[in-house]
Amino acid sequence: MSFFKKLKDKFVNNEETEQVSDKYKDGLTKTRSSFSSKINDLVAKYRKVDEDFFEDLEEILISADVGVSTVMDLIDELKLEVKRQNIKETTQVKEVISEKLVEIYYGDDDEAVEELNLQKDQLSVILFVGVNGVGKTTTIGKLAYKLKEEGKKVVLAAGDTFRAGAIEQLEVWGERAGVDVIKHSAGSDPAAVIFDGIKAAQSRKADVLLCDTAGRLQNKVNLMNELTKVKRVIEKEIPGAPHEVLLVLDATTGQNAMSQAKTFSAATDVSGIVLTKLDGTAKGGIVLAIRNELEIPVKFVGLGEKITDLQSFDAQAFVFGLFADMLEDDDQPAK
Amino acid sequence: MAFEGLADRLQSTIQKIKGKGKVTEQDVKEMTREVRLALLEADVNFKVVKDFIKRIKERAIDQEVMESLTPGQQVIKVVKEELTTLMGGEQSKIAVADRSPTVIMMVGLQGAGKTTTTGKLANLLRKKFNRSPLLVAADVYRPAAINQLQTLGKQLDMPVFSLGTEANPVDIANQAIEQAKNNHNDYVIIDTAGRLHVDNDLMAELQQIKADVKPDEIFLVVDAMTGQDAVNVAESFNEQLDITGVVLTKLDGDTRGGAALSIKAVTDKPIKFAGMGEKLDELEAFHPERMASRILGMGDVLSLIEKAQDNVDEKKAKELEEKMRSASFTFDDFLDQMAQVRSMGPMEDLLGMLPGANKMKGLKNVQFDEKQISHVEAIIQSMTKKERQDPNLMNASRKKRIAKGSGRSVSEVNRLLKQFEEMKKMMKQMTNMQKGKKGKKGKGMNFPFM
Asked: In this predicted model, what pLDDT tens digit does every residue of B179-191 receive, in sequence order?
């Protein structure tokens, strides 16, 4: 069975997953139309698979923030594949392109959806980290709601004691999601807040504690050390915790996202990524390279400002979203 | 960072063609390929890069580069000149309306840093131009956005106008202007909610505010880390609102900031200010030339030199150089030097400005902890005058005393002594090199154009 058939079977012939992929399609409409219409344009423009074709393809991928080196590797592989399979028509290349993209994302791993690592019978602690303005607090609000809908008891810890209004912002989200927020006053020690958060969550018999932290640029050594300290405090209180360290990345971010992923991982051992603001025109292609190089999977994507706009990340759905136009096009000539 | 600076990479391309005697068109092609890569890695939009490379090629294939003895450096020079021209001249002016108050609208995507920048801009207006701004909380959507601006207003001791989250942003803006007139605020800065450029309803809201308050400035606030999408965002905001300038935020990060170039290229609006930190006084005028260097990965040599000139006492510097040369450098000089360097700003920032600093052996992964510098100071200050002059005096009991006095461990004292010796050696080497022993490649710092 071909790759596209598999995707189609998974998403088109299954009503339950259709809803999910619809969400992706909604959120990614602009992404998809700009990205895959470009690929379609390209395919229509060129009959032959030649140097010009590859050059244009390279630009399309670069414009999706996939990153120059990843793109060049991909193009090299594509060229090899084209030679090997003796592909001459551009329409045949489409499939190889998306196969390769999914392959970059997964590497040699199983193509499993990355679930949150939640403990069965004890408190699970999730630490949120990231640079300023990526949407950490908003994501916590959305995830709190999602987990609560799943029947979990959730507590939030207002660990961003630095930015003006951050505590109040988390409180509003706590109210919206209907969960408790543990806070200290602005300017207090974030590690202390999170320590209290753990204590409170334990005494309230909560299932999950979501810890907010202040946004910080990854080249600020002192602030990164502070984050390591916060993590250490959690480790000390609950062996094996934090059970997840989620790095929140703004899809609008370019190549610097790689540096963010590297440095935050070094400081806090990041276990997953939340890719936010995917409802704009940005493509967030850098997550392919991050997954490939650092083996950090994307666990959630933010697709809007509503409390329900947080979706589990599914790479196939993601790619399906990007390539939906092409898949639909494929159907027509066959009939 | 994952990539090396353009200067470093071009060097290796040059190595290949050295000895050829003449630079061919093919060589130029290869060099511009490196430039293209550097720009793309810096997140400059690929379309902008394409046009740019075309221009560079034309100039580079021209006489000036082909006949130059250092074609590699010539190419960089051409690139830098073109980049600087493209980015435009320095433009940190803010409009002044004929009739007070002057109205400034802050717009941009979510999380770009509008609210923080609003606070910083107000601070700048008061500090530098002696103005009295009114801050307007028109972000009624993001939870606690109003609260954030009010907190900043409190920190700055400046008035903040708000009608809560139930009011319409257009009404808020209108009423704020009235209040500013009554209270004699000569500037009004309207902090609008972050929104996607493709969100038609919210963009229409901005257009309505614009139509009502007729702002003198509309600043698009853009995160310096923005990738390829920067062109779409900037183009769209500019088309719908005809912005008057750009503020680039989070430039204190380690991003190359190619978005700056993309934005300038598609909007042709000046980048006026740059956010350089989280504190309210960390908004600086934007320097196109420095940005060009940064995008190319050549380090912010100019900024460094300027900082050094501002802070380093010339006479002391001369003395120091003499001491370095004669290797009579003592712990007292070390303390002195540290104090001077520290007055220039955080160590990591300074290092980041040095081109090739990340390539220097031993410096590659050095992370400077300001606290550690304080520890070093404490250790030195716990030494006697004699010990500072002559580290050879050190013995176990002296070390123990110093450790006790500084509250550090003996092993830390030992480490410092060892580092100090190594540093002295290195200084000798470096000053010797300056005296003209060139040819030892790869050692010391490599400043292009210096």
From this structure: 999 999 999 999 9
- Residue B192 three-state SS: strand
ipTM above 0.85, yes or no: no
Burial zone of B90 (CB within 10 Å; 0-12 exposed, 13-18 middle, 19+ buried): middle
pLDDT in tens, B292-344: 878 877 655 545 555 555 555 556 666 766 776 666 778 887 787 777 666 66
Beta-strand relationship, B271-275 and B283-285: antiparallel
Q: Shortest Cα distance from A138 to chain B (angstroms)?
A: 9
Higher pLDDT: B395 or B24? It is B395
Rounded distance between C-alpha atoms, residue A152 and residue A144, angstroms: 9
- Chain A residues whose CB is inside 8 A of the B294 CB are none
Cβ(A157)–Cβ(A211) below 8 Å:
yes
Helix (H, G, I), strand (E, B) or coil at B19: coil
| Partner-chain contact A168 B196, CB within 8 Å | no
d(CA A309, CA A173): 13
Q: Report chain A residues whose CB lies below 8 A from the CB of B225.
A: 131, 250, 253-254, 256-257
B379 touches B402 (CB < 8 A):
yes
Rounded to the nearest 5°, which phi and psi values hold at B103? -110, 130
**What structural domains does chain B harbor?**
4-86 (1.20.120.140), 102-298 (3.40.50.300), 304-438 (1.10.260.30)
Percentage of chain B exceeding pLDDT 90: 45
Reading the block at residue A178, the tokens are 């209907």
Instruction: Single out the residue of A317, A321, A333, A329 nearest to residue A10, CA to CA.
Output: A317
- Asked if B254's CB is within 8 angstroms of A259's CB, the reply is yes
What one-character-per-residue DSSP string does A119-140 give?
A: -SSS-EEEEEE-STTS-HHHHH
**Inter-residue contact B144 to A175 (CB < 8 Å):** no
Chain B residues with beta carbon closer than 8 angstroms to that of A220: 252, 348
Q: Which residue has 């505590």 as its token pair?
A: A167
Q: Is A314 annotated as a binding residue?
A: no
Q: CA A245 to CA A247: how far, in whole Å? A: 7
Listed in sequence order, the DSSP H helices in B18-94 are 25-41, 46-61, 63-66, 71-87
What DSSP character marks residue B393? G
- Cβ A217–B254 below 8 Å, yes or no? yes
Q: Which residues pair with B284 in a beta bridge?
A: B274
pTM above 0.80, yes or no: no
SS3 B160: strand
- Classify A284 in phi/psi space as left (phi over 0), alpha (psi -120 to 50) or beta: left
